[in-house]
UniProtKB/TrEMBL annotation:
<dbReference type="GO" id="GO:0016747">
    <property type="term" value="F:acyltransferase activity, transferring groups other than amino-acyl groups"/>
</dbReference>
<dbReference type="InterPro" id="IPR016181">
    <property type="entry name" value="Acyl_CoA_acyltransferase"/>
</dbReference>
<feature type="domain" description="N-acetyltransferase">
    <location>
        <begin position="16"/>
        <end position="180"/>
    </location>
</feature>
<dbReference type="Pfam" id="PF13302">
    <property type="entry name" value="Acetyltransf_3"/>
</dbReference>
<protein>
    <recommendedName>
        <fullName>N-acetyltransferase domain-containing protein</fullName>
    </recommendedName>
</protein>
<dbReference type="InterPro" id="IPR000182">
    <property type="entry name" value="GNAT_dom"/>
</dbReference>
Length: 186
């Protein structure tokens, strides 16, 4: 199912490295990342994906210069444990949006998401010369909210009842961090 051999380590820390998505990763996305139930709940995903829709998505994002899509991999084994992206990169206004999903439940709550997010946000500030990075997170994802706060993200607003999931409405919390507020955690 998974082709894990890639020598590319775009960004790295002691425990993790981030690498670009490759076409060989499509099976991993289709068979694991997009269907893992806890990941779907935390991201509010309700979409039913097909292999061809995943292929089309990959072809579109690989040509989009306003985004960076990465796999989160373990240094020790090269195994992918999640994926993340920096989206809507706006060089004129020096801002972008980030998202993350750890799809291997064995690595939830152990700081891997915070570490990966720290690498990507630092890249945005230090290399892309961004001034602001934003995100949104659902109110029930307290673990993620706490992770983002460790990195310096601040709550900027609430979109009430923005997600209907499992028979209930949930708020979306808008968060952002400015370059001078960022706290690197690796």
């Amino acid at each position: 199912m998974q082709k894990l051999e890639s020598n590319v380590k775009f960004l790295q820390s002691d425990r993790l490295f981030l690498r670009p998505l490759e076409e060989d990763d499509l099976d991993l996305f289709y068979e694991k990342a997009l269907w893992e139930q806890e990941g779907r709940r935390l991201t509010g995903s309700q979409t039913v994906f097909t292999r061809s829709s995943v292929q089309s998505w990959f072809e579109n994002v690989s040509l989009d210069s306003t985004r960076i899509d990465l796999l989160i991999c373990l240094q020790a084994t090269n195994a992918p444990i999640g994926e993340m992206a920096m989206l809507d990169i706006d060089h004129r206004n020096q801002k972008a949006v980030v998202r993350i999903s750890i799809f291997d439940n064995d690595y939830l709550g152990k700081g891997f998401g915070t570490e990966a997010m720290s690498l990507l946000v630092a890249y945005g500030f230090d290399i892309l010369n961004l001034h602001r990075v934003g995100l949104d997170v659902f109110s029930y994802n307290e673990r993620a909210i706490n992770s983002y706060k460790k990195l310096g993200f601040k709550q900027e607003g609430v979109i009430r009842d923005s997600l209907f999931y499992n028979g209930q409405f949930h708020d979306s919390i808008m968060m952002g961090v400015l370059r001078h507020e960022f706290v690197k955690c690796t």
